Structure formats: C-alpha cells, structure tokens
Amino acid sequence: MTVDELTRPAVSRRTLRTETLLVLGLSLGQSAVYALVSIIAKLTADGPLSKQTASLNTSQSARPWLDLTYQLLGIVFALLPVLLAVHLLARSPGDPARTLGVDLRRPGSDLARGAGLAALIGLPGLALFWVAAHLGINATLVPAGLPHLWWAVPVLIIAAVQNAVLEEVIVVGYLVTRLRQLSWRLGAVVATSALLRGSYHLYQGFGAFVGNAVMGVVFSLFYLRTRRVAPLIVAHTLLDVVAFVGYALLPREWFSWL
Predict the structure, then answer these.
(1) Coil vs helix vs strand at 145
(2) What is the pLDDT of residue 12?
(3) Cβ(188)–Cβ(179) below 8 Å
(4) Lower Cβ count inside 10 Å, N or C end of the chain?
(5) What is d(CA 249, CA 161) in angstroms, rounded to the nearest whole number?
(6) Of 153, 160, 152, nearest in space to 238 by CA
(7) In angstroms, rounded to a whole number, what is the distance separating the alpha carbons of residues 39 and 166?
(8) In this structure, how many other beta carbons lie within 10 angstroms of the beta carbon of residue 40?
C-alpha cells in the first residue's frame, strides 16, 4: 500500500467522521466517558483519592463455573469492535491487515520490537506509578481480583491479549489511519490518540492518565513510522501479563506501593 492509498478515503469525509465516532462510541470512547464519571465520583467521595480503589479483572460470580463463563464472554464481546474496525477499513484501498500491520510477514521483528517497547514503557511506568502513589494522585490499583482457581491465570493472560488487541487496533491502527484520511495534521493525530488512551485510564487516577498518554504518544509515533500495530500488541500484552499475573501470584505486600 502506498502513502497516497493510506491517506485517500474511499468514502466521503462526513461518512468517515461519523464512522469513527460510532466505532469509538462502541468501544474505548465509551470507556473514556465512564472513566471520567468514575474519577469525578472518586474526587467527590469521602476520603482522598489515594484511599480509594480501582479494580481490574474482578470476579463476576461466587460460582466458579459461572464466573469463568462471564470472564470469557466479556473477553469475546470486547473484541467485537476490533472486528468492526477491520471490516470498515476493508472499504479503503489495500488489505486491512497490512494497513494495520497485523499480518504475519515479520513475526521475529514484531516480537523483538514489542519486547523492546515493553521495556521502554514498563520501567519508567513503574516509576511513575510509584511517584503518583506517593503524591496521592492515583487510586489504589488492584490489577487482578479473580479467585485462586485453576483458570484464573489463563484468563488473566487472555484478558491481557484482549486489552492489547482492542486498544492498539482501535486507538492506534484504526484511529490514526482514519484521522490521516481526514487530513488531520500529524501532531493532532498523535495528541488525539494519546489523550484518548489516557482518558479511559482516568478511573485509576491522574498518574495513570499521564503515564498512558505518554505511552500513547510513543505508540502512535511508532505506528506512523513503521505502519505496524503487531509490535504494539506484543508490548501491551507483555506489560499487562506482568501486571495481572504478577499481582495474582506474588505476595500482596510487594504491591503495597500501588
């Protein structure tokens, strides 16, 4: 695919704008609105933000088999906006898998780059969370709240993959492609993608917003340079697996600083 093909819309700009808003409204744009309401609720509740909790991957039922069912259904349905985005991109010139950079042409390179990005983002991210916790601008984060059952770790790993695919395909691959087709300036494209990423993490606090916005800048620039979302999915998956599974398996006192 040429640069001209990537930036030339196959449908009208009005249709692309409407489509983009609908895709975001069904996925992470909706999450951003809920996160904004959540942070307002936390800030207006009794007690400081640092004494409140933001929980991820929580149990949905006291019955283990039903809890597992809910977890898997949540993961499957969370990926539907990704399929919708890929379907809509297929209307534009070129193969959507190649447009997004999620084909299997460069598996070794994608894995290596993803691991490097995970290290680049992960270590400073831990430092930022530590600072945010000590400044009291983050809620106490609980990355995994599943019961200690045989399926907990596999579900956490699958959830990490789901988060990575959803966020990187929608907020980077799809959104950046559509905004470029709408002739947005590069700075505005990067800022929009980064701010959206930060906004749907607001329920965790302001430190999480800043950290994820910075991550969004790095990931958007990487995609604009390489046209590959696959390394971003690898990096995001590694970060979430370490956070989710580490929290589930390691002693709780190791995470008191969160």
Answers:
(1) strand
(2) 87
(3) yes
(4) N
(5) 18
(6) 160
(7) 22
(8) 11
- Which residue ranges in the chain fall short of pLDDT 50? 1-6
DSSP 3-state helix, strand, coil percentages of the chain (rounded to 5)?
Answer: 75, 5, 25
d(CA 183, CA 81): 24
Quote the pTM value.
0.92
Q: Residue 8's pLDDT is what?
A: 53
Strands 140-142 and 53-55: parallel
Coil, helix or strand at residue 58:
strand
Q: pLDDT value at position 1?
A: 47
CA 60 to each of CA 71, 208, 237: distance values in angstroms, whole numbers, following the listed order: 7, 25, 23
In this structure, the chain runs to a length of 258
Q: What is the rounded distance in angstroms from the CA atom of residue 134 to the CA atom of residue 205? A: 12
Confidence at residue 87, expressed as pLDDT on a 0 to 100 scale: 95
